[in-house]
Amino acid sequence: MKFYSSDYILPISADPIKNGIIQVDSEGTIINIGTKEDFPTLDLQYYPGVIIPGFINAHCHLELSHMKSLCETGTGLIEFIGRVVSLRSFNQEVKEDAIAKRDIEMYEAGIQAVGDICNNLDTAATKKSSPIHYYSFIELFDLMQKHLTATTIENYKEVFKGQDESGSNKKSFVPHAPYSVTPELLEFINQANPDTKCISIHNQETPDETMLFKKGNGGFYKFYSSLGLSLEDFKPTGKTSIDYIIDKLKPHYRNLFVHNTLTNENNILNAHKWSDHVYWVSCPNANLYIENKLPDYQLFLKNNAKLCLGTDSIMSNWQLSIWEEVKTIKKYQSYVPLKELLEWSTINGAKALSYEDSLGTLDVGKKPGLVNLNLVWYGEQTDISESFPTRIN
Ligand SMILES: [Zn+2]
After folding, report:
1. How far apart are alpha carbons 278 and 257 in whole angstroms?
2. Distance from the alpha carbon of residue 282 to the mean position of ligand 1, in angstroms
């Protein structure tokens, strides 16, 4: 048994506990939470600041770990995707070493579970032995080319087979983005996943996506033709991309919409009307890195949206730390309450990835990981700008 104390314990599921103590067994399962009156004479390990549950990173591309600093900031999404495509041949050992290093970086930054996008099997070995819970999203795209759909499916069945789902790991097939999948590929994804699955899709990340779906113009035509592909199979819908895609996804899945920098209030209302299981994943540092724009969080707060946080890949970020994502939101959109941000970074991500039974809050019986933040807790008035996370267990 171990007993950890801090100036405040923030269970997330309950009010902060002043001079709190948390008891965990040798496996990390929480046995009891209380104060000095409940645990009078014990060998306590004291951490100044607060103790919170481990973070959930709801969106990452671990397989891009070797690509740090290989794309300039502020160039926009289409330029970024072009860069990812052009840089995909690297020595296997270099890739796997970088993946193992980033996995450790995330764990040390207090991250307990990761929703990880997979286009190949480079990450499989690391995930199998990692202490992090990985939900692998096997991400299909046929670049809206019907003649590529069948081979895409065959290739990705192999990726699915090779990604781990033993222990705490899980996996599902998911679509990349509305602008890169045919309806036929979406149909396969819907049929291949059992009803309990989580689905992740990149959403409304660049104005070109809206232009393509609404009017059939914008930068994607040029991008596709630079790859030697035409968009003749695609007909503009007169709708935004999310309004188009929700008709083709299943509302009873847990659906994670990722990025949402261009999402408007109607999009949020329509998605909420469509399903009770919509999660909006925000990756603020990646949004600043790629498009230099953040989502309008006021719209999400106003409509009681379930938000969670992701780091995206190290190719579009400066580090893989959910606490750094929280700090970025507090820096640029400081109206977002800290209480909300703590939920976005823990329990909401746990629910989005279906780990809420064991992760996301400090509750007896859970094994959520414990993280210390070196800050002075004043509730909403707390200054988090110079704090950083330290993993306790
Ligand atoms: Zn992504």
Report:
1. 7
2. 10
